[in-house]
Amino acid sequence: MPTLNLNILVVPTYDTFTLGIADASTYPDSPPVVTSPLIEITIPSFDTVSFTFPILETTFYNSETLLITPSGDNLVSLPDGIYTLKYSIDPADINYIERSIMRVDRLQEKFDTAFMKLDMMECDREIKTQSKVDLNSIYFFIQGAIAAANNCATEEANKLYHYADKMLDRFLGDNCGCSGNNYKKNF
Fold it and tell me: Residue ranges of the alpha helices (H) in the chain?
């Protein structure tokens, strides 16, 4: 007989407008008997919101359901940053699980734009190679921000996120990336 093991997963939506959360828990009884499944979502720069959470299902949230935009208004992209998710199955919060995740969907969208710019550039070999090096560095910082958030290193996660964002802005602001000198010197 399985024991109670609460687990939630953030499901990739590849969309800046939605957040997907799945209940991946194991319950001691089948079908599970849960009195008050509740998820609390702390959104960067917004208040914490609470919802009844369907057990053993995947639920998708957007700016309206997360109370960021009023009902009936146009949906907006969800903010990037550290989200805290707390899933509990009883009113006394005796059994719960809490996760921190770094949402980077907006930054990833910007990275994708930079990547596509690289593929379409008509530049010399050194500049193209330097641009690849720059994009690999940016990707490394994005992954570092995610890893830091997953390990509750909030300050480090935010620092890495903002650094990657600045690097992307600089990359997108240049015509062909840069002069290629860094590649020549280091490789």
Answer: 105-120, 125-150, 154-173, 181-186
Instruction: Mark whether 94 and 116 lie in a shared domain.
Output: no
Q: In the structure, what pLDDT confidence band is assigned to residue 183 with cuts at 50, 70 and 90? A: very low
3-state secondary structure of 62: coil
Backbone angles phi, psi at 136, to 5 degrees: -65, -40
Rounded distance between C-alpha atoms, residue 140 and residue 31, angstroms: 43
Could you tell me the pTM of the whole model? 0.81
SS3 138: helix
Q: What is the pLDDT of residues 87-145, one digit of tens each?
A: 998 867 678 999 999 999 999 999 998 888 775 555 556 667 788 889 999 999 999 99
47 and 33 within one domain: yes
Of 103, 131, 160, the one marking the end of a domain is: 103
Cα–Cα dist 88/42, whole Å: 14
Among candidate residues 103, 122, 142, the one where a domain is terminated = 103
Q: How far apart (Å, rounded) are the C-alpha atoms in residues 68 and 46?
A: 8
Q: How far is CA 49 from CA 41, 46, 186, in A?
A: 5, 9, 49
